[in-house]
Amino acid sequence: MDNVILIGFMGVGKSSVGKLLASRLGAPFVDLDTEIEIKNNMKIPEMFEKYGESYFREKEKETIKEVAGRKNIVIATGGGAVKDEENRKIFKDSGFIIALTASPEVIYERTTAEENRPLLADLSDNEKRKKIADMMAERKSFYENADYTVDTGELSPMQVVEDILHWLKMRRG
Ligand code: S3P
Fold it and tell me: Strands 148-151 and 74-76, how do they pair?
């Protein structure tokens, strides 16, 4: 099996879907953000705060290079990993790229329920909505370049997994 790489904006469900998908495929699951935190012994919000976003992006790239070389795994990427051209090429060479999407409103609700996202922290409601819209627009073309896309807005993680499994089965024959 090639790797299965989940891409998409913050809050689309990459980590929860990835975990379930991996267990259904009987494959190891790697969450890139978690891997970055383990390797660097530091939580991502702390890394942003202490060293800034560009330092995080360096660490993200290092981890992507390492993880994408493994075989037969499911990878959940961080929402901004696709901004980098080299990362995009590594993902393409590593397996099937599946994009998860959701509307800005759904993203807003989901990311407001959790507090581990430095890029959306310390903003008023309006600022946060604007930032989500701006970042989604900036990244749209990268997410659209996937092999397959699932809108997760109205689906449970299990339903998303069923959809992906169906596609993988058809794709692989
Ligand atoms: C980021 C998304 C986060 C994490 C970091 C930056 C982004 O991952 O990698 O905070 O640039 O969109 P999730 O998409 O898992 O929230």
Answer: unpaired
Predicted pLDDT at 127: 95
- Residue 82 is given by DSSP the state G
**What pLDDT does residue 113 have?**
82
Q: What is the domain count for the chain? A: 1
The domain of 160 spans: 3-172
CATH of the domain at 157: 3.40.50.300
Q: How far is CA 54 from CA 4, 79, 88, 153, in A?
A: 26, 15, 17, 31
Ligand 1 proximity of 153 Cβ (cutoff 6 Å)? no
- Does 173 have pLDDT greater than 80? no
How far does CA 158 lie from the centroid of its chain? Answer: 17
Q: Choose the residue to mutate in 117, 123, 131, 132 for probing ligand 1, maximizing ligand atoms within 8 Å of C-beta.
A: 117
The sign of the torsion formed by the CA atoms of 61, 40, 119, 107 equals: positive
